[in-house]
Amino acid sequence: MTPVLRRGMPLLLVFAVLLVAGLSPRPVPEFFHQQDKLHHALGFLAFGWALLWAFPRLGFMGLTAVGLLLAGAIEVGQAMWLPARTASLWDALAGLGGVWLGWACWWLASRRSAPR
Question: What is the pTM of this model?
């Protein structure tokens, strides 16, 4: 497997999971109020980590732009095509927060593995 493919596969997998979950006709059943915000944060944390794994030079601002674009696109898709789903600015912001958590985890991990 080529290095590009090895680094890109996790990103494609997480991207596909976010799209399927975010654009499915019915939302995931909630066991507690606002559980979907946790789903957004965790899913986009994985996306942020995978994005930085695939493109380590992307940086914080690039990661923020891509994360906000994807989170916003999913919410717009829900508003336009999925009447059973509710689009929310708070969902997009939870996704952005998850991307930032992914960046923080990536940053911490890279500092721990850096030669001293």
Answer: 0.89
- 98's CB contacts (< 8 A; 6+ apart) are 40, 41, 42, 43, 44, 45, 46, 47, 48, 67
pLDDT of 50 above 70: yes
pLDDT band, very low/low/confident/very high, at 116 (cuts 50, 70, 90): low
- Cα–Cα distance for residue pair 22/107, rounded to 1 Å: 27
3-state SS class at 51: helix
pLDDT in tens, 84-114: 888 999 999 999 999 999 999 999 988 887 6
Dihedral (CA of 78, 47, 56, 90) sign: positive
Tell me how far CA of residue 77 lies from CA of 37, 49, 99, in angstroms. Answer: 17, 24, 20
